[in-house]
Write a structure and sequence with these properties.
The protein is an all-alpha fold. 74% of the residues lie in helices and 0% in strands. It is built from four helices and no strands.
Length: 81
């Protein structure tokens, strides 16, 4: 929906947020960090952490908007530690 909003309002930042969120969700699924229903495994809280980590990382590593990359780089680094 970020991408749709960005396209409809000609907002490049919103479009970029959508693209990076899509990539972050892909990383979440590829790394099997979705929530499990079994006790002792990753729950919703852990899954949300990984989504935040992957999204911050995607935003920090993208090259379309230097300002966004610089803004999210410290968060991505902190979450990765």
């Amino acid at each position: 929906s970020f991408e749709d909003m960005g396209a409809k309002s000609d907002n490049a930042k919103a479009t970029l947020l959508g693209k990076t969120l899509d990539s972050a969700i892909g990383a979440l699924l590829e790394n099997d960090k979705g929530p499990s229903r079994k006790a002792g495994e990753l729950d919703n809280r852990g899954s949300q952490f990984y989504l935040a980590l992957y999204w911050a990382r995607e935003l920090a590593e993208q090259t379309e908007d230097k300002e966004l990359a610089e803004h999210f780089a410290p968060l991505a680094k902190t979450l990765a530690e």
